[in-house]
Specification:
CATH superfamily of the largest domain: Ribonuclease Z/Hydroxyacylglutathione hydrolase-like
Helix content: 25-40%
CATH topology of the largest domain: Metallo-beta-lactamase, Chain A
Shape: globular
Radius of gyration: 23 Å
CATH class of the largest domain: Alpha Beta
Number of helices: 12
Largest sheet: 11 strands, mixed
Number of strands: 19
Bound molecules: zinc ion
Length: 380
Amino acid sequence: MLEVHVLGVSSARPAHGRHVSGSVVDTPTGQIVVDCGEGFQERMLVHNSQLKACDMKQRLRHTRLRLLLLTHGHLDHCWGVLPMLQTMSLDGRNKPLAVAGPISDISFDALLANGANAILNDPGIVKVDLARQWQQWWSLGATNSELGYDITWFAVDFSSGERWLKLNPESGECSLLDNPPVLMDGVSVHPHETLHSVPSCGWSIRLADKAGRFEREKAVEMNLDSEQKRNLAAGKNVENNGELLKAEDFRGLPRVAPCVLISGDTGAGAPSFSKIEVGPTLLIHEATYTSERVDRARQWLHSTSQDAAHAATEMSAKHLLLTHYSSRIEDTSQLLAEAREIHPSTAAAVDGDIIKMDLEGGISHLRYDGRGWSQLHDSF
Ligand SMILES: [Zn+2]
């Protein structure tokens, strides 16, 4: 089961009861935060106490958090990181954490040449480049010795393919990785470069595919004994009346694991999206504007909801969830209607929504109404 808790759907600033960006993705091997705008840790707390009060079995816990993914350095996407790291320190965290995000090629080369604490004053590096911000966070106490738990920092650059650095602020070490790092066990996590005014990417999070179901009925029909059935179910071939029965012939089709891709901020037509081979179950894509404001979307490298729908169609995403609305948008019905003309299985997120995806391809969209979460009827 893959589960996404959407905790902020507003762009740039809080508006209409919506908060700035940040989500938690719950996987069987741990939780992942994707973007972490201002006040994110407080939203996690409130959401968690609502889950508890409503007797939901889910919990968002810092102790289950393994990975923090950032889509870019704009502050509405990362201003909440440092306070959250410090809270985890106050809570006595001892589990390691990984942080990953995109940086510019100039920062990348400077870090590679001069180490994690290289001076990044080239005018070509934007002020909010994550490499610059990480250095500031380190100077304010986001280091292993000050926090009391280990953080590994991974920076990715897309200027010539995909290049990765692993940074250690205390030793100053900075190593170029031969292969993309395994950011979390049991889950494939990949960046997809997006089009924005600063280095940016979306992140896909995919569980491992599972073998098909054991076809017990077939074994029963053949009058196999319980030991034969047990062996076939465990993937072992067996003999039956001198005939070899192959375990693979007693398996249904492999179950394609659920995958979510969270776009971060992007203009229309990010080239990396057209290279995705297996589309995600769910694309969570920014939809800052309605179609009337397409000029603004092009100017600021954001998307309309129709751009989001085109992206979903292009990458063969089964379902699309819109997010990151301009503060001018109070009612999302126009955004939704425009996107559904292109990609019918689309919904518009609100803060607190929970999307559950299972191994059978099922998806459910739950919304909080002040008393509890229930399945939305007019959704995917
Ligand atoms: Zn944004």
